[in-house]
């Protein structure tokens, strides 16, 4: 089961160096994955989009968007932060590295695993089980 996301794959480091996963929030509840993909695709080459079903601590929807061939991450974030969807001003930031390492857009075990406040508990449980 080695796909390109498996750390033992020699191309994994190269792929990791040219991709960027962003955390995106403050978008309408009616916005779907396809619409968010199309909006973000204006700023770069989108590879994956995941909109969480749960809400953030602030009670807002959030998503992770993975981009390919990113040369300047700051410029990407600046471009994403200029997007307006009606009266909603999109907020984007680079996703935390701890989340990126475990993020698998094809096979989600549990949506709450990707929430920042739950991450420390999950890491502690995995270390305990090992």
TrEMBL record:
Q: Which GO terms describe its molecular function?
A: RNA binding
Q: What is the lineage of its organism?
A: Eukaryota, Viridiplantae, Streptophyta, Embryophyta, Tracheophyta
Where does this protein come from, organism-wise? Artemisia annua (Sweet wormwood)
- Entry's PROSITE patterns? RRM
Q: Where is the RRM domain?
A: 20-97
Q: Which SUPFAM superfamilies does UniProt cross-reference here?
A: RNA-binding domain, RBD
User: InterPro entries of this UniProt entry?
Assistant: Nucleotide-bd_a/b_plait_sf, RBD_domain_sf, RRM_dom
Pfam families membership:
RRM_1
Keywords associated with the record = RNA-binding
Q: What is this protein called?
A: RRM domain-containing protein
The record's annotation in CDD domains points to:
RRM_SF
Q: Does the keyword RNA-binding apply?
A: yes
């Amino acid at each position: 089961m080695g796909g390109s996301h498996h750390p033992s794959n020699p191309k994994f480091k190269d792929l990791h160096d040219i991709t960027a996963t962003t955390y995106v929030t403050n978008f309408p509840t009616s916005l779907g994955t396809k619409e968010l993909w199309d909006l973000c695709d204006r700023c770069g080459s989108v590879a994956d989009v995941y909109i969480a079903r749960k809400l953030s601590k602030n009670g807002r929807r959030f998503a992770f968007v993975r981009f390919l061939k990113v040369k300047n991450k700051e410029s990407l974030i600046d471009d994403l932060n200029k997007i307006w969807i009606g009266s909603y001003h999109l907020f984007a930031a680079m996703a935390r590295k701890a989340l990126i390492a475990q993020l698998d857009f094809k096979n989600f075990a549990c949506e709450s695993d990707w929430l920042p406040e739950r991450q420390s508990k999950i890491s502690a449980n995995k270390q305990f089980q090992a």
